[in-house]
Design a protein that fits this description.
heterodimer; A: 319 residues; mainly alpha; globular; B: 296 residues; 11 helices
Chain lengths: 319, 296
């Protein structure tokens, strides 16, 4: 088991390293560089020279990669393309806000999703299962900007229960975001619940149909004792990985929801960096989000290995 | 994963297509899904002749009008006919994703099969690269490329096809792994068949089901991504009608003219839900449980 954990940890680091190479090489491969992208038509003469010197673009690519990567490990991502702001300071508050939104959605979503997954799995094909499973398909597949827009129309405009957008500045304390953040959290929670619920549901169905549960039933073990003692611990194990994917998604991929609700998190910072063609900031954000993704998945895999006796002996498995 | 589903070798390839299609249509969700998808495709093809108004014709005397006999769904904030725009609002998205999805499936599928067949160190290294790519949020990579190269279809199609092919590699590689170890592949190897022949005659027919389901699923994700880009202003350029762009533009006028937002919402949602219902029914008809796959 220890060997597996070490191996998985090692693979995680390798993945992060490859990610950093892809991101760096990807930006290198783009026509022009951070300065020509940022300055656009003004990219000539003194201005371009100064910008290149500020960002260290006059050094060879390998040196720059090593500088960038070693800085990133220490949490120092350099300065933005205009040379004015330290990226770490720029991103700091946004990371906090993204974590706040994610934490809110997770705290409500995960328990609810697992509960719904168990209910729909145990009462498969009942009306309650059909209701929630159909709802899950809708929640999973309809674009977030669509559900967000419809929710704003209903709850903010027609009913007037909650504010439609967030107006609080990025550096405000966490509590200042209530109640503006509620609708955004609801949209994210819906999508999240759908994914986790489907996974838990199919996992519960599989475990309840397995030989050892059937055996326990034939022996006459009380139903609820089978469910809670024998089936659920096994059925919930795969949920760890889905929850991890959801956490990674919440921390990195919620660009659209943040734009719709004007929420000052990482996603909106991404869009403004992209609109300004600020490659150093884009690089840093991509690295932060990808590292989070790998880290959260790594944690989930390791937790699964520790919790699942069968995986302890398996030398290799598909993720 | 595929062993329950595929009887091989198949005497009538076309027959199986109709059998699966019949099976999909026999499920209520599959029938609804199929109807929605086909309806949208037909509508996208014929809508230029259906629409009563030019989608870019503005009428400043009719701004944010409620539904009337002339404008069935009212007019938007520039006085354009909402119905005409909604009817044609899926054309670009369907065209782009309709071309990009098969390309993604093809390159992802072939790479996946080859990796599954070759195995060993190459496979191991390639999968690390795939993992690395999957950990960079897709929307971010798309946005960066689109911001730099522009939003024309010539940029959109290859970009979408590239990024959406990567998760396909993983799924098809896993499906191939299940097949490669089986006796008939060993037998083909023993008979001295070339790798190409093994891929074409032994592996492809066995991972084809997984590829079909994967393709339907990727299509819906791609449509979602493309619409999100358009919503953020990085996709379809105005004045071309697009549901996502319409939602983005008319959002500010929602309290006055909710139909300007609701009509494209219904159109886009019904298409995406339709694709997903079809994909689900397809997976069930082919004996592949889609819910067990991880979300990527």
């Amino acid at each position: 088991m220890l060997r597996m954990l070490v191996r998985r940890l090692f693979l995680g680091f390798v993945t992060v390293w490859i990610v950093s190479v892809i991101i760096f090489a990807g930006v290198e491969a783009l026509p022009g560089d951070a300065c020509t992208a940022f300055l656009e038509r003004d990219a000539q003469g003194k201005l371009l020279e100064n910008c290149r010197r500020d960002l260290g673009l006059d050094k060879p690519a390998v040196t720059r990669y090593i500088d960038w990567a070693s800085g990133a490990i220490r949490g120092d991502f350099g300065v933005s393309a205009d040379g004015q702001q330290s990226i770490a300071a720029l991103v700091g508050d946004r990371v906090k806000n993204s974590i706040l939104l994610a934490a809110g959605a997770l705290a409500v979503g995960v328990p609810l999703a697992i509960l719904l997954g168990i209910i729909t799995g145990l009462w498969r094909d009942s009306w309650i299962d059909i209701l929630f499973s159909t709802g899950a398909i809708f929640a999973m597949t309809i674009p977030e900007f669509v559900s967000a827009t419809v929710l704003i129309l209903i709850f903010a405009i027609w009913l007037g229960w909650v504010p439609a957008v967030v107006l609080t500045p990025a550096d405000a304390p966490a509590l200042a975001f209530f109640p503006e953040v509620i609708l955004a959290a609801v949209v994210l929670t819906m999508v999240m619940i759908a994914h986790i619920m489907r996974m838990v549901r199919s996992s519960v169905i599989e475990v309840m149909a397995s030989d050892y549960v059937q055996m326990a039933m034939l022996k006459g073990v009380p139903y609820w004792r089978i469910v809670f003692r024998h089936a659920l611990p096994n059925a919930l194990l795969p949920a760890i990985n889905v929850v991890a994917l959801t956490v990674a998604w919440l921390l990195g991929g919620v660009v659209v929801v943040e734009m719709v609700f004007n929420y000052p998190g990482l996603g909106r910072t991404m869009i403004s960096a992209i609109s300004a063609r600020d490659l150093p900031v884009i690089q840093a954000l991509a690295m932060i989000v990808a590292a989070t993704y790998v880290g959260v998945n790594l944690a989930a895999d390791m937790l699964t290995i520790v919790l699942n006796p069968r995986l302890r002996t398996l030398s290799q498995r598909g993720k | 994963m595929t062993e329950t589903a595929t009887p091989r070798p198949n005497p009538g390839r076309l027959n199986r297509f109709w059998i699966v299609l019949g099976d999909v249509a026999a499920r209520p969700s599959g029938l609804i899904g199929l109807t929605l998808v086909l309806g949208h495709i037909v509508l996208a093809l014929i809508s230029p002749w259906l629409a009563g108004y030019d989608y870019k014709a503005m009428d400043s005397s009719l701004i944010l009008e409620p539904p009337s006999a002339e404008h069935w769904l009212g007019t938007d904030h520039l006085g354009r006919d909402i119905l005409s725009r909604v009817l044609q609002g899926g054309r670009v998205a369907l065209l782009v994703t309709g071309i990009a999805t098969p390309i993604a499936l093809l390159w992802g599928g072939i790479t996946g099969i080859l990796l599954g067949l070759i195995g060993g160190r190459t496979d191991e290294i390639a999968m690390r690269v795939v993992d690395a790519f999957l950990s960079i949020p897709g929307v971010l990579s798309l946005l960066v490329l689109v911001a730099i190269f522009g939003t024309g279809n010539a940029v959109m199609i290859p970009t979408l096809a590239f990024f959406f092919g990567i998760p396909v590699i993983r799924v098809i590689r896993a499906a191939t792994h299940d097949v490669v170890a089986r006796d008939f592949v060993l037998a083909a190897r023993a008979r001295g068949h070339s790798r190409l022949s093994i891929v074409w005659r032994e592996l492809l027919p066995n991972v084809r089901d997984a590829m079909m389901v994967e393709g339907a699923m990727r299509w819906s994700w791609m449509l979602l991504a493309f619409s999100s880009l358009s919503f953020l202003g990085f996709g379809v350029p105005p004045p071309t009608p697009d549901w996502a762009v319409m939602i983005a533009d008319e959002r500010a006028y929602m309290p006055l003219a909710p139909l300007g937002v609701l009509a494209p919402v219904v159109a886009l949602s019904s298409l995406i839900v339709g694709i997903n219902l079809t994909a689900d029914a397809l997976a069930k008809a082919m004996g592949i449980d889609r819910a067990r796959k991880a979300v990527v």
